[in-house]
Each structure stands twice: as C-alpha cells, then as structure tokens.
Amino acid sequence: MNLSLLKRPSGFLPIAMSLVALSLVLEHYARVGIVHEPDEVTEAHLFQLLMAAQVPVIAFFALSSLPRAPRQGIPVLVLQAAAAIAAFAGVFFLT
Predict the structure, then answer these.
(1) pLDDT tens digits along 66-87
(2) How far apart are CA 24 and CA 18, in angstroms?
(3) Which helix (H) or strand (E) holds 89?
(4) Whole-number Å distance between alpha carbons of 73 and 43
(5) Residue 26: what pLDDT?
(6) pTM
(7) What does the DSSP 8-state code read for residue 32?
(8) Which residues of 15-36 are buried (b: 16+ CB within 10 A; e: fewer)?
(9) Eight-state DSSP code of residue 81
(10) Degrees (nearest 5) of the Cα angle 17, 69, 57?
(11) 68: how many CB neighbours lie within 10 A of its CB?
(12) What is the pLDDT of residue 1?
C-alpha cells in the first residue's frame, strides 16, 4: 500500500488534528475524571474546533487527490476517518 499522499498537508493534518483532539479528551479525563460539568470547559471547545476544522481539509483532500490517484487516496481517507472515529469514541465512552 502506497501512502505517499500522507506526506501532503491535506493528508496528514486531519489525522494529526484528530489525535490532538483525542489527547485533549484523555488528558482532561486523566486530570479531572469523569465529571458532568454544567458548562463546557476549554478542552470541549478545542475538541469541537479541531473536529470541525478538519472537515474542509478532508473535503479538499478528497476533491484534489481522489480523481488523480484513487488507489492511494482511499487508504488515506480511511485513516482520516479512523482517527476521527477514535476521537469521538473517546468522548462517547468517557462521558
């Protein structure tokens, strides 16, 4: 499997953003624990911004890379989706 498209910023940035979002979730729960807070904390806002900001990056990657190299682009999209699912799973299972 050739993942050369991961070297492009539009390939690796969504994965990195999802991993940062997941690390924010894990760090918050390690520091505070599972507490239902009446107001959202800074980590929650940063998580939302990181996850929302990667949508246009993924769309750009899909529109620019898939038509030219679908065999290389689809595995990168799968990695991006897996990283996003992991970040959301952290929130789902820890709340």
Answers:
(1) 999 999 999 999 999 999 999 9
(2) 10
(3) helix 70-94
(4) 31
(5) 92
(6) 0.89
(7) T
(8) bebbeebbebbeebbeeeeeee
(9) H
(10) 25
(11) 9
(12) 60
